[in-house]
């Protein structure tokens, strides 16, 4: 579970990490009011759970009420990398001279958490890791003993952080580790940790991912989950329908009954040169209404150019699913995106006969079905 920036900042601030003054707003007047209260200049920041918001136009620095209004107008309601922006964080702008990176994550190779520090903050840290791995200092931590203060100082020293702020950065790093440990963090990250001309350090961004399996013992964080889910309308819809759904970056929509089937389909789409748009498991009992809901979800994702069904009949028989698919598609005057179906298992032959080939493309094998869907998606891209 990923916290929003404003939620993570709240958690960090409670633990004593310096954060800028800020307020959450969801309409233009709210943004202006918040900005007046905090005092200009302020940063207006889209609250969606993707990185690189700055580059994508989701963060604006404003000097007065007019600019605040314009920024709120353009950011609220925008589509940021597939996420609908319905709230912004209005935040005291930080006048910085340097941007650092500090983070804690699990190093699965070593089986230990690792603390990371870099003076190349403010940019995508994965890129730094690839292009200039030595620019990130790393210190592994033994979870049974926690992070020793000397380990924090060593990481900060190794990264080449200026002497004048080394103490404060070490202390932020130690606190971040403590939080990661106490809150069952999967990752905790501050990028950038800004350094001001007066040698103050302040967390200008905050990322905190919580281990889902530990949420039962983190009731305060679990409460944030519902709020955190906000923003992605499709993920909310999936919750309502009771589907397992994950949005991905590609354009081939995938629907299957069973997590394993869906995973296999994702792999095959990738294998045949396509890119999956989503993971969608409709689960057992895939009757007409459920199929219609699944199609409705996948069709309403603008990134989707074709859809592939991978259905294995078990308790839910192939003929029932086939009727469901027909019924769902008959509601459209025009099918929005080409649909390919592969049926196997109980009553698959009846199912194949029932499927209306004016509405869908039917393939015998999963390989053929996936290849066809990838082809359709590619044709849309070529236009
Ligand atoms: P991300 O791109 O989604 O990770 O969003 P960040 O919160 O990290 O902001 C991206 C960049 O916007 C930062 O590295 C800064 O350069 C700039 N920025 C964000 N907040 C402020 C601020 O308060 N003052 C100034 N000057 N720049 C800011
Ligand atoms: Mn950032």
From TrEMBL:
<keyword id="KW-0460">Magnesium</keyword>
<keyword id="KW-0067">ATP-binding</keyword>
<feature type="binding site">
    <location>
        <position position="257"/>
    </location>
    <ligand>
        <name>substrate</name>
    </ligand>
</feature>
<dbReference type="InterPro" id="IPR013650">
    <property type="entry name" value="ATP-grasp_succ-CoA_synth-type"/>
</dbReference>
<feature type="binding site">
    <location>
        <position position="94"/>
    </location>
    <ligand>
        <name>ATP</name>
    </ligand>
</feature>
<feature type="binding site">
    <location>
        <position position="191"/>
    </location>
    <ligand>
        <name>Mg(2+)</name>
    </ligand>
</feature>
<dbReference type="InterPro" id="IPR005809">
    <property type="entry name" value="Succ_CoA_ligase-like_bsu"/>
</dbReference>
<dbReference type="Pfam" id="PF00549">
    <property type="entry name" value="Ligase_CoA"/>
</dbReference>
<dbReference type="InterPro" id="IPR016102">
    <property type="entry name" value="Succinyl-CoA_synth-like"/>
</dbReference>
<dbReference type="GO" id="GO:0042709">
    <property type="term" value="C:succinate-CoA ligase complex"/>
</dbReference>
<dbReference type="InterPro" id="IPR017866">
    <property type="entry name" value="Succ-CoA_synthase_bsu_CS"/>
</dbReference>
<comment type="subunit">
    <text>Heterotetramer of two alpha and two beta subunits.</text>
</comment>
<feature type="binding site">
    <location>
        <position position="45"/>
    </location>
    <ligand>
        <name>ATP</name>
    </ligand>
</feature>
<dbReference type="GO" id="GO:0006104">
    <property type="term" value="P:succinyl-CoA metabolic process"/>
</dbReference>
<keyword id="KW-0547">Nucleotide-binding</keyword>
<feature type="binding site">
    <location>
        <begin position="314"/>
        <end position="316"/>
    </location>
    <ligand>
        <name>substrate</name>
    </ligand>
</feature>
<feature type="binding site">
    <location>
        <position position="91"/>
    </location>
    <ligand>
        <name>ATP</name>
    </ligand>
</feature>
<dbReference type="InterPro" id="IPR011761">
    <property type="entry name" value="ATP-grasp"/>
</dbReference>
<dbReference type="InterPro" id="IPR005811">
    <property type="entry name" value="SUCC_ACL_C"/>
</dbReference>
<feature type="binding site">
    <location>
        <position position="205"/>
    </location>
    <ligand>
        <name>Mg(2+)</name>
    </ligand>
</feature>
<dbReference type="InterPro" id="IPR013815">
    <property type="entry name" value="ATP_grasp_subdomain_1"/>
</dbReference>
<dbReference type="GO" id="GO:0004775">
    <property type="term" value="F:succinate-CoA ligase (ADP-forming) activity"/>
</dbReference>
<protein>
    <recommendedName>
        <fullName>Succinate--CoA ligase [ADP-forming] subunit beta</fullName>
        <ecNumber>6.2.1.5</ecNumber>
    </recommendedName>
</protein>
<feature type="domain" description="ATP-grasp">
    <location>
        <begin position="9"/>
        <end position="242"/>
    </location>
</feature>
<dbReference type="GO" id="GO:0000287">
    <property type="term" value="F:magnesium ion binding"/>
</dbReference>
<comment type="pathway">
    <text>Carbohydrate metabolism; tricarboxylic acid cycle; succinate from succinyl-CoA (ligase route): step 1/1.</text>
</comment>
<keyword id="KW-0436">Ligase</keyword>
<keyword id="KW-0479">Metal-binding</keyword>
<comment type="function">
    <text>Succinyl-CoA synthetase functions in the citric acid cycle (TCA), coupling the hydrolysis of succinyl-CoA to the synthesis of either ATP or GTP and thus represents the only step of substrate-level phosphorylation in the TCA. The beta subunit provides nucleotide specificity of the enzyme and binds the substrate succinate, while the binding sites for coenzyme A and phosphate are found in the alpha subunit.</text>
</comment>
<keyword id="KW-0816">Tricarboxylic acid cycle</keyword>
<comment type="similarity">
    <text>Belongs to the succinate/malate CoA ligase beta subunit family.</text>
</comment>
<feature type="binding site">
    <location>
        <position position="99"/>
    </location>
    <ligand>
        <name>ATP</name>
    </ligand>
</feature>
<dbReference type="GO" id="GO:0005524">
    <property type="term" value="F:ATP binding"/>
</dbReference>
<dbReference type="Pfam" id="PF08442">
    <property type="entry name" value="ATP-grasp_2"/>
</dbReference>
<feature type="binding site">
    <location>
        <begin position="52"/>
        <end position="54"/>
    </location>
    <ligand>
        <name>ATP</name>
    </ligand>
</feature>
<dbReference type="GO" id="GO:0006099">
    <property type="term" value="P:tricarboxylic acid cycle"/>
</dbReference>
């Amino acid at each position: 579970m990923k916290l929003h920036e404003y939620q993570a900042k709240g958690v960090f601030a409670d633990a004593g990490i310096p954060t800028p003054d800020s307020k959450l707003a969801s309409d233009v007047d709210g943004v202006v009011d918040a900005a007046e209260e905090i005092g200009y200049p302020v940063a207006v920041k889209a609250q969606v759970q993707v990185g690189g918001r700055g580059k994508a136009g989701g963060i604006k620095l404003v000097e007065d009420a007019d600019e605040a209004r314009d920024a709120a107008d353009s950011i609220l309601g925008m589509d940021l990398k597939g996420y609908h922006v319905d709230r912004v964080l209005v935040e005291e702008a930080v006048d910085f001279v340097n941007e650092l990176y500090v983070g804690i994550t699990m190093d699965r190779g070593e089986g230990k958490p690792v603390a990371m520090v870099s003076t190349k903050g403010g940019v995508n840290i994965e890129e730094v890791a690839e292009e200039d791995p030595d620019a990130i200092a790393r210190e592994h931590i033994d979870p049974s003993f926690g992070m020793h203060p000397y380990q924090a100082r060593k990481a900060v020293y190794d990264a080449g952080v200026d002497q004048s702020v080394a103490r404060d950065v070490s202390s932020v790093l130690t606190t971040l580790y403590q939080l990661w440990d106490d809150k069952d963090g999967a990752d905790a990250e501050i990028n950038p940790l800004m350094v001001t001309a007066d040698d103050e350090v302040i967390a200008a961004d905050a990322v905190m991912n919580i281990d889902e399996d530990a949420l039962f013992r983190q009731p305060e964080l679990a409460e944030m989950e519902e709020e955190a889910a906000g923003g992605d309308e499709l993920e909310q819809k999936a919750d309502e329908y009771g589907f397992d759904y994950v949005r991905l970056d590609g354009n081939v929509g995938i629907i299957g009954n069973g997590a394993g089937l869906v995973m296999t389909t994702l792999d095959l789409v990738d294998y045949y040169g396509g890119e999956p748009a989503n993971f969608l498991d409709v689960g057992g009992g895939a009757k007409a209404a459920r199929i219609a809901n699944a199609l409705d979800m996948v069709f309403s994702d603008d990134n989707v150019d074709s859809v592939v069904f991978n259905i294995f009949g078990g308790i839910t028989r192939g003929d029932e699913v086939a009727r469901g698919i027909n019924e769902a598609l008959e509601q459209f005057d025009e099918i929005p995106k080409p649909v390919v179906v592969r049926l196997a298992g109980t009553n698959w032959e009846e199912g194949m006969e029932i499927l209306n080939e004016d509405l869908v493309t039917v393939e015998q094998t999963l390989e053929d079905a996936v290849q066809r869907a990838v082809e359709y998606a590619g044709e849309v891209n070529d236009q």
